Amino acid sequence: MADVNRGNRPLSPHLTIYRPQLNSITSIFVRITGNGLIVGAIGVVWWLMAAASGGAYYSVIDGLITSVLGDIVMALSVLALWYHALGGVRHLIWDTGRGLDVKSADQLGWAMIIGSVVLTALTLVAI
After folding, report:
1. What pLDDT is attached to residue 15?
2. Which of 8, 27, 90, 109 has a beta carbon 3.0–4.6 Å from 22's, enabling a disulfide?
3. So what's the pLDDT on residue 113?
């Protein structure tokens, strides 16, 4: 095996060197919301399994899901769902070769943020 001197080599650029950009932040949040949706999906499956298992267990889980904390978690799950979906639409637009310049990419990023908040509010009002 080659003797590699790792102590004298320069480090590759890290997050502390680069200024955060809207596209990088929105991309990171798409990944975070994707993982958050897994947690929300587990909660919904848990609720459905409780509904199938009987009334006593269902009333406990339903009480948790419909509590204030449950309402907050579900509202944030709706926000995550819309944000993640709009992130997918943004990537579909990019896959066509459109919106890749900095100005258009920033506009798409702001459209994701504003659109997810507006669509979440509309969804919560409709429920």
Report:
1. 64
2. 109
3. 97
